[in-house]
Amino acid sequence: MSDQPKTANIVIIGGGAVGCGVAYSLAKAGVEDVLLLEKEPTLAAATSGQAAGLVGQVRNSVERTQLAMWSVQTFCELQADDTANPGWRQVGSLRVALNDERVREFEGMKAVADEARLETEFIDPAAAQGHWPLMDFSAAKAVLWCPSDGYLQPSDLTMAYVAHARKMGAEFLTSTPARSIRLEGGRVTGVETDAGVIDCKTVINAAGAHAFHVAKSVGLELPIVPVRHEFFVTVHADGLVPDLPVVRIPDASLYLRAETNALLCGGWEPEGLSTDPRSFALTAEPPAIDPDYEVLGWFAEQLAPHLPKVNDLGLRSVFRGWPTFTPDGRFIIEGDRLGIGAAADAGDLPTLGPQSGGEAGGAIAHAEDQHVQHRRPPLNWYQTVKLSPQPQLPLALGLAKTKPAVKSSSTQFMVEPMR
Predict the structure, then answer these.
(1) CA dist 169 to 7, 162, 370, Å?
(2) For 252, which DSSP code?
(3) SS3 content of the chain, % helix, strand, coil (to 5)
(4) CA neighbours within 13 Å on the CB side: how many for 74?
(5) CA–CA distance, 347 with 397 (Å, rounded to integer)
(6) pLDDT at position 217, please?
(7) Do residues 133 and 58 make contact, with C-beta atoms less than 8 angstroms apart?
(8) Where are the alpha helices (DSSP H) in 31-95?
(9) Could you tell me if 331 and 356 are in contact, meaning their C-beta atoms sit under 8 angstroms apart?
(10) What span, in angstroms and rounded, lies between the C-alpha atoms of 94 and 140?
């Protein structure tokens, strides 16, 4: 590519919501000479474009909750721009518990939210139905309401990041696949593309399902597994309007929201399909995903007791992708050991994937020791976990996992159903 620069301060590999969110956060933090590379002709061309766009802040630690709150604040700011915004709808969320164990879990999360000063409250089934008139909450043991949650359009979010980051000096190159990362003396010196080498000091690996292959070029074997995820959107129906809250029913492994005047519903399979990242190359694509109507039908069956109308709605479209997961379901932010920041798209994609771009970006901007305006995300939001004979990986943020077991180096891990 003739306009490929020869040097950059930071090169980001991957143009999804995470990579573009990191570029935006770095640019906003005052970091200069940020360059993002995307192998596809367009940005948000892979998993980000297949995400449901749910945004939730209720987490099980204060640090993670505060980081999510910081991300929501970013979305509110972006939404104020009429020319480039993420389609952010702050409609609130209902988290539904169907058994006593889940109630206790929610009580703990409510205590964390209180400490983080995130507004939440337990509401009764009648109040919950007031928020979602078509739903039946009679089986609910508890309902946790968070009025500042919501949802957005992942592709719009990505392009909003890009528009604002460009204004602050960041560059984006599409149709530019990164082939490898160059090292000298254990430090990053550049990124090789088909058009030559870009000299740089730092690389941020946000390559999604190909993050494994990018890391492999410097001798790291990231413990990540692409896991199939699907959701469906129904035809339009009376009573489904855009300002309905997001609903999560963890005991049924389900989430749902309105999509204009239709229903969007997805979940996590008890025995989800995964693919070994070693089975395809950096230059190849992950296996194609055909809609699994048996699984989608199972989602509808799980939802029917709580939303009987789902049985009467025709299917309009199916979205599916390969979000990547770590053994504990958290993100990988690789620090200074090799001079590489690895922000793999490795969260619970439908609820955290697009949201995670802002969160990971804020954390990495912090690592650059820059001020992110006057809202700096917490410093101690991650923890270091040793997974294998590989370098220690600071891991943070995540929820669900699936199976089968996949080996990474000498470490075998199993992804479990969402809690």
Answers:
(1) 14, 10, 16
(2) G
(3) 30, 25, 45
(4) 32
(5) 7
(6) 87
(7) no
(8) 62-79
(9) yes
(10) 11
pLDDT at 340: 42
> How many CB atoms sit inside 10 A of residue 194's CB?
12
Average pLDDT score over the chain = 80
The CB density around residue 53, as the number of other CB atoms within 10 Å, is: 28
d(CA 244, CA 97): 19
Q: Which two tokens stand for residue 320?
A: 């599916």
- Distance (Å, rounded) from C-alpha 12 to C-alpha 34? 8
- Neighbour count for residue 308 (Cβ, 10 Å): 12
Task: Return the closest-CA partner of residue 61 out of 399, 402, 400.
Answer: 399
Whole-angstrom distance, CA of residue 264 vs CA of residue 350 = 11
Give the whole-angstrom CA distance, residue 97 versus residue 419.
11
Query: What is 150-183 written as a DSSP string?
Result: EE--HHHHHHHHHHHHHHTT-EEESS--EEEEEE
- Phi, psi dihedral angles at 85 (to 5 degrees): -135, 165
Amino acid at 381: W
Q: Write down the residue that tokens 């990971």 correspond to.
A: 360
Q: DSSP E strands: which ranges in 14-165? A: 34-37, 54-55, 93-97, 121-123, 142-146, 150-151
Q: What is the DSSP letter of 54?
A: E
Contact 41, 176 (CB under 8 A): no
Residues of the chain with pLDDT under 50: 1, 336-352, 369-419
Could you identify the residue written with the tokens 């573009």? 20
Distance CA 240, CA 257 (A): 9
How much is the pLDDT for 392?
30
Token representation of residue 82: 């009429």
Amino acid letter, 61: S
